[in-house]
C-alpha cells in the first residue's frame, strides 16, 4: 500500500489560504529549481526521467490535491448567497424597506422583506443551477496531458493521456504543439520549443524554452515576474506550446503554481462580454429611471397636495415597483435553459454568457482544415518535378513524417503526417531503418517541417529532408531530381514548377513540396541549397454537413469568412464546393503591412484569406470587431488559438487540440457543422426572451409611473396604497419570470440579436403611454363609480379597481408584446408563460374576495365596475396592438 508521502523539501506544500503572500514563495522556489542541473531537480522531486510509479502518484494526489486553481472547481453556496444579498437591486430594496420601517409603515416593510427573500432565494437557486449546468458542460470537455508513469518499479514507462487535474508534482509530461502547459514544469528535453505565455505576461510573441541550463536568458530573481517568465528552463501553467516538443517534469500543481498564486492575489474576473455590458447598461438605466421618477412622483404629490407622509410612502412604493430585482434571476434562468437546449444539438456552451454573443454573431470566421473539411486527408498523388507518378517522393515524404514522429514528445501526430504514414504503409513503400538525429517539427508560421535522418545500415551519411508549402520550399531548392539525376534549377524551371503545383491546387489538391540534401554527420547544413524530389498532393474531404450548414448560417444573416493557412487556389476550390462564393482571395502577405482601419475595411469585403499565419488570423478577427461586427471564430488547430481567444465567441470541435478547446467558449460535440447554426439560433432565442422581459417590464412600469404622476395631479387621494403597489409589483415580477422558457418569433431568429439600449428606450416611450391611456380611462370610470368621493370606502373601491385593471393589462401585455405577430394558435405562448398570466389574472380577480382583502384595504368590485374595467382592458389590447404595429413599421429592420 502506498504510504502518504513525506512532504518533500523541494515540493510545495498544498496551497493554503494565504494566496496573497504566496507569490514570493513561489518565485523563490522556481529560482531554486531553475538554478539546479536536471538530475538534481529530479532528485529533489523524488522522481526520474521514466516517470513516477502509479502508486506514488496516487499518494501524492491525495496529499497535494487536484491540479486545479482554487475558484475554478465546484460552485459553492456561501459566495452565491453573499452575491444575491449584495446585488445592487436588493440593496435598493433594503434602503426602501428601512425608510418604510423608520416611517412606521411596517406592512410595507414586511412586503419589501418578502420581495427581498423571494428574489434572493430565486437568485441563489438559479445561480446554483446555472453554475451546475456550466460545471457539467465544462466537465464534458476534459483537457488531458500526456504523462509518463510506471505500473511498478520493474515495468517500462508508459505514456498515456490523463485528465490535467490528476497531475502531481514529480510527474513527467510530454508537450507538443497546441498543448496547454498543465502545471509549472522544468524542461528536461526539448526540440525547437516555443511557448505562448500571453495569459501570464500579455506578450503574444512566443518565448523559446529549452532544457539546457545556462543557455538563453538566465533566471534572475531580482527581475521579478519578467525574469521568471523569461527563464528558458521553466514552463508555466496557463501557457501553451505554440511550436516544438518537450519532455518536462512537474514542479508544482494547482494553487501552488505561479498562475495559482497570481489567481489568488489578483482574483481575476472573467473579462466583461458585450452581454455583461448590455445587462449592466440596462440595469443602470433602470436604476436611473427609478431615481428620477420616484422623487418626481413625490414632488408632484407634495406640490399639489402639500407634503404628506402618505405621499412619501407612495413614492417609495413607486421606487420599489421600478426596481428590476428579478432581472439577474431572469438572465441566469434564460442562459441555463439555452445552454441545456444547446446540448440537444450536441453543442457545449462552456461559458454561458457566450450564448448571447452567439446570438449576436453577424460574421463567422472559420479555418478550413478540420472545419469545412474533415481532418482525415486523402493522398491524391506523389509526383516527380515533371508531374509523373514517383514512389520515391512518397518515400522521402514518409521518412520525414517518421522522423517527425520519432521524437518522444511528438504526439499526437499531425494529420498530414498521419495520412502520409498510412498511405506509405498501404502502398508498401519502405520507411524502416531510418533514425532521426534532428527534428524541426511543423509549425504554421514556417509552413514546413525538416528532419535529419540516418539509415541504420549506412551510418556514414545523413540526409536532410524538408517538406512543406510549395512557396516555402521551392525558393530553398537549387536542383531538381529527375530519374535519379540531379539537374540545376533555372528560374524558368522554378516558374514551371509553381504552375504545376497551382494547377493541382486549383483542383482542390494541396501540394506539398519534398526536398532533400546530403550532409555529413556533425556538419550542420542550413535548410537550403536543397534538391527538389517532387510533390505529394493531398485532398481534403469536405464535410458532408458543410454546405447545408453554411446555407443555414446565411439564412440566419451570418456572413461566413474563411481564414486558412492553405494555398489560395485550394481554399477557393474548397469554398466553392461548400457553396461559398470566394471572390478575390487575399493573401497573408498582403495584410502584413496594413494598419487597422484599412484591414477592417478589407476584411469586411473579403470572404477568403489564404496563406495566413496564426497571428494574422487573430488580426483579421480583431479588425472586424473594431469595425463594429460581432465576430465568431470556428477553428480546431493550434494556429487558431489566438483568433479563438480574440473573437467575441470562439467555437471549436471536440477533436480540436487542447489550446483550441481551452480558448473556445463553445465546443461542438458531434461531426455535424449544422450544430453551429442551431447554436446561433439558441443564442438568439435566449436573448430574444431576455429582451422580451425587458421590453414588457420596462414599458409597463414606465406607463404606470406616468399614470401615477397624472393621478397625483388629478386626484385628491392616492390612486393606490403603497402596500397594494408592492403586492402588485411582486405578482407582476413573478408572472414575467417564465418568459425565460417562452417560444421566440421565427423572424427574430433570422437576424443577429444585439443589445441596443436606444432602441429599448424608443420602444418604452412609444408603448408605455398605451398603458397610461388605459389607466386614465380606468380612473375616469372609477371616479364615476365612486362619485369622486374621498371617503375611505370609495377610495378602497378606487384602489381595488385600479389594482384589478392594472394587473389584467399587464397580463395582456405579456401576450401581446411577446411576439411581433398578434396572438394566435400558431404563435401561442409557452405553457409556463400562460400559467404565469393565468395566475396573476386569478390574483387580480380573487384577492379582493379573499381574507387578505381587509389587511390590504381592498373591497369587492360591483358587477358594473368589473364589466367596465374589463372593457378598459379590451381597449388597452386594441391600443397596445396598434402601438405595436406602428412600432414594427417605424423600427428599421437594420436596427433589429
Ligand atoms: N505536417 C506538415 N509538414 C509540412 N508541411 C505542412 C504540414 N502541415 C501543413 N503543412 C503546410 O503548411 C501549410 C499551412 O498549414 P496550416 O496547418 O497552417 O493550415 P491548413 O491546415 O492548410 O489550413 P487551416 O488554416 O484551414 O487549418 C499547409 O497548407 C501545408 O502546405
From TrEMBL:
Reactions catalysed, semicolon-separated, are: Mg(2+)(out) + ATP + H2O = Mg(2+)(in) + ADP + phosphate + H(+); ATP + H2O = ADP + phosphate + H(+)
Q: Which SUPFAM superfamilies match?
A: Calcium ATPase, transduction domain A, Calcium ATPase, transmembrane domain M, HAD-like
What PROSITE patterns has UniProt attached to this entry?
ATPASE_E1_E2 (PS00154)
Which keywords does UniProt give here?
ATP-binding, Cell inner membrane, Cell membrane, Magnesium, Membrane, Nucleotide-binding, Phosphoprotein, Translocase, Transmembrane, Transmembrane helix
Q: Listed GO molecular functions?
A: ATP binding; ATP hydrolysis activity; P-type magnesium transporter activity
EC number(s) given by UniProt: 7.2.2.14
Transmembrane region positions? 89-122, 285-304, 310-336, 693-715, 721-741, 762-785, 797-817, 829-854, 866-887
Compartments where located? Cell inner membrane
InterPro entries noted in UniProt: ATPase_P-typ_cation-transptr_C, ATPase_P-typ_cation-transptr_N, ATPase_P-typ_cyto_dom_N, ATPase_P-typ_P_site, ATPase_P-typ_TM_dom_sf, ATPase_P-typ_transduc_dom_A_sf, ATPase_P-type_domA, HAD-like_sf
Got a GO cellular component term for this one? plasma membrane
Q: How does it sit in the membrane?
A: Multi-pass membrane protein
Q: Name one Pfam family in it.
A: Cation_ATPase
Instruction: Using the record's annotation, list all stretches that form the Cation-transporting P-type ATPase N-terminal domain.
Output: 32-105
Q: Which domain of life is it from?
A: Bacteria
Q: Which PANTHER family match?
A: CALCIUM-TRANSPORTING ATPASE
State the family named in the UniProt similarity comment for this chain. Belongs to the cation transport ATPase (P-type) (TC 3.A.3) family. Type IIIB subfamily.
Protein role: Mediates magnesium influx to the cytosol.
Name the UniProt record assigns to this protein: Magnesium-transporting ATPase, P-type 1
UniProt organism field: Actinoallomurus iriomotensis
Gene field: mgtB
Amino acid at each position: 500500500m502506498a504510504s502518504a508521502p513525506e512532504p518533500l523539501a523541494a515540493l510545495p506544500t498544498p496551497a493554503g489560504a494565504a494566496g496573497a503572500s504566496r507569490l514570493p514563495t513561489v518565485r523563490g522556489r522556481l529560482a531554486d529549481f531553475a538554478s539546479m542541473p536536471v538530475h538534481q531537480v529530479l532528485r529533489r522531486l523524488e522522481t526520474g526521467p521514466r516517470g513516477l510509479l502509479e502508486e506514488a502518484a496516487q499518494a501524492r494526489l491525495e496529499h497535494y490535491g487536484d491540479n486545479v486553481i482554487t475558484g475554478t472547481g465546484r460552485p459553492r453556496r456561501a459566495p452565491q448567497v453573499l452575491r444575491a444579498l449584495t446585488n445592487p437591486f436588493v440593496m435598493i430594496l433594503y434602503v426602501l424597506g428601512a425608510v418604510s420601517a423608520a416611517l412606521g409603515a411596517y406592512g410595507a416593510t414586511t412586503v419589501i422583506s418578502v420581495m427581498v427573500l423571494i428574489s434572493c432565494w430565486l437568485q441563489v437557486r438559479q445561480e446554483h443551477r446555472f453554475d451546475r449546468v456550466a460545471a457539467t458542460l465544462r466537465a464534458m470537455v476534459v483537457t488531458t496531458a500526456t504523462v509518463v508513469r510506471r505500473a511498478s518499479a520493474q515495468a517500462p514507462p508508459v505514456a498515456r493521456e490523463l485528465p490535467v487535474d490528476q497531475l502531481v508534482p514529480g510527474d513527467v509530461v510530454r508537450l507538443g504543439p497546441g498543448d496547454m502547459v498543465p502545471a509549472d514544469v522544468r524542461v528536461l528535453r526539448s526540440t525547437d520549443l516555443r511557448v505562448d505565455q500571453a495569459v501570464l505576461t500579455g506578450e503574444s510573441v512566443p518565448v523559446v524554452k529549452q532544457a539546457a541550463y545556462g543557455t538563453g536568458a538566465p533566471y534572475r530573481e531580482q527581475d521579478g515576474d519578467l525574469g521568471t517568465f523569461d527563464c528558458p528552463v521553466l514552463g508555466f501553467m496557463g501557457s501553451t506550446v505554440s511550436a516544438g516538443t518537450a519532455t518536462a517534469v512537474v514542479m508544482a500543481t494547482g494553487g501552488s503554481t505561479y498562475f495559482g498564486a497570481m489567481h489568488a492575489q489578483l482574483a481575476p474576473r472573467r473579462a466583461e462580454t458585450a452581454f455583461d455590458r448590455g445587462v449592466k447598461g440596462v440595469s443602470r438605466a433602470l436604476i436611473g429611471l427609478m431615481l428620477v421618477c420616484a422623487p418626481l412622483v413625490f414632488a408632484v404629490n407634495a406640490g399639489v397636495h402639500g407634503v404628506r407622509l402618505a405621499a412619501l410612502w407612495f413614492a417609495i412604493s413607486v421606487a420599489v415597483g421600478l426596481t428590476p430585482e428579478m432581472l439577474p434571476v431572469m438572465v441566469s434562468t434564460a442562459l441555463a435553459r439555452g445552454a441545456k437546449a444547446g446540448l440537444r444539438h450536441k453543442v457545449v456552451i462552456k461559458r454561458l454568457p457566450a450564448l448571447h454573443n452567439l446570438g449576436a454573431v453577424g460574421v463567422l470566421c472559420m479555418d478550413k482544415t478540420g472545419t469545412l473539411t474533415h481532418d482525415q486527408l486523402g493522398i491524391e498523388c506523389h509526383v516527380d518535378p515533371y508531374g509523373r507518378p514517383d514512389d520515391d517522393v512518397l518515400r522521402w515524404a514518409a521518412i520525414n513524417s517518421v522522423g517527425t514522429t520519432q521524437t518522444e514528445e511528438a504526439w499526437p501526430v499531425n494529420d498530414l503526417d498521419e495520412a502520409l504514414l498510412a498511405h506509405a504503409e498501404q502502398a508498401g513503400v519502405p520507411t524502416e531503418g531510418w533514425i532521426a538525429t534532428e527534428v524541426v517539427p511543423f509549425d504554421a508560421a514556417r509552413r514546413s517541417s525538416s528532419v535529419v535522418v540516418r539509415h541504420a545500415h549506412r551510418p556514414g551519411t545523413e540526409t536532410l529532408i524538408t517538406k512543406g508549402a510549395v512557396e516555402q520550399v521551392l525558393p530553398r531548392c537549387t536542383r531538381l531530381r529527375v530519374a535519379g539525376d540531379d539537374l540545376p534549377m533555372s528560374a524558368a524551371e522554378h516558374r514551371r514548377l509553381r504552375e504545376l503545383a497551382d494547377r493541382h491546387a486549383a483542383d482542390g489538391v494541396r501540394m506539398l513540396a519534398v526536398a532533400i540534401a546530403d550532409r555529413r554527420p556533425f556538419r550542420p547544413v542550413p535548410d537550403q541549397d536543397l534538391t527538389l524530389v517532387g510533390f505529394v498532393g493531398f485532398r481534403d474531404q469536405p464535410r458532408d454537413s458543410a454546405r447545408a450548414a453554411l446555407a443555414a448560417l446565411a439564412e440566419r444573416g451570418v456572413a461566413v469568412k474563411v481564414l486558412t493557412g492553405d494555398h489560395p487556389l485550394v481554399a477557393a476550390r474548397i469554398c466553392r464546393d461548400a457553396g461559398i462564393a470566394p471572390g478575390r482571395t487575399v493573401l497573408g502577405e498582403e495584410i502584413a503591412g496594413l494598419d487597422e482601419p484599412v484591414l477592417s475595411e478589407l476584411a469586411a469585403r473579403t470572404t477568403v484569406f489564404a496563406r495566413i499565419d496564426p497571428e494574422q488570423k487573430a488580426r483579421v478577427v480583431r479588425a472586424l470587431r473594431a469595425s463594429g461586427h460581432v465576430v465568431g471564430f470556428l477553428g480546431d488547430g493550434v494556429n487558431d488559438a489566438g483568433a479563438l481567444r480574440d473573437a467575441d465567441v470562439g467555437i471549436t470541435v471536440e477533436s480540436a487540440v487542447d489550446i483550441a478547446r481551452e480558448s473556445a467558449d463553445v465546443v461542438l460535440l458531434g461531426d455535424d457543422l449544422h450544430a453551429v447554426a442551431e447554436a446561433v439560433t439558441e443564442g438568439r432565442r435566449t436573448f430574444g426572451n431576455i429582451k422580451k422581459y425587458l421590453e414588457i417590464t420596462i414599458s409597463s412600469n414606465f406607463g404606470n409611473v406616468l399614470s401615477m404622476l397624472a393621478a397625483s395631479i388629478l386626484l385628491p387621494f392616492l390612486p393606490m396604497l403603497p402596500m397594494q403597489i408592492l403586492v402588485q409589483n411582486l405578482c407582476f415580477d413573478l408572472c414575467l419570470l417564465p418568459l425565460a422558457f417562452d417560444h421566440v418569433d421565427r423572424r427574430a431568429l433570422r437576424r443577429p440579436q444585439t443589445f441596443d439600449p436606444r432602441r429599448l428606450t424608443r420602444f418604452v416611450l412609444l408603448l408605455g403611454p398605451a398603458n397610461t391611456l388605459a389607466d386614465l380611462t380606468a380612473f375616469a370610470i372609477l371616479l364615476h363609480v365612486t362619485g369622486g368621493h374621498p371617503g375611505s370606502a370609495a377610495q378602497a373601491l378606487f384602489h381595488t379597481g385600479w389594482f384589478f385593471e392594472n394587473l389584467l393589462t399587464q397580463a395582456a401585455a405579456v401576450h401581446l408584446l411577446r411576439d411581433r405577430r398578434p396572438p394566435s394558435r400558431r404563435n401561442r405562448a409557452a405553457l409556463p408563460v400562460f400559467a404565469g398570466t393565468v395566475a396573476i389574472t386569478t390574483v387580480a380577480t380573487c384577492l379582493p374576495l379573499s381574507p387578505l382583502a381587509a389587511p390590504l384595504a381592498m373591497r369587492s368590485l360591483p358587477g358594473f365596475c368589473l364589466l367596465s374595467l374589463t372593457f378598459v382592458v379590451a381597449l388597452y389590447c386594441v391600443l397596445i396592438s396598434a402601438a405595436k404595429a406602428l412600432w414594427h413599421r417605424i423600427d428599421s429592420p437594420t436596427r433589429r
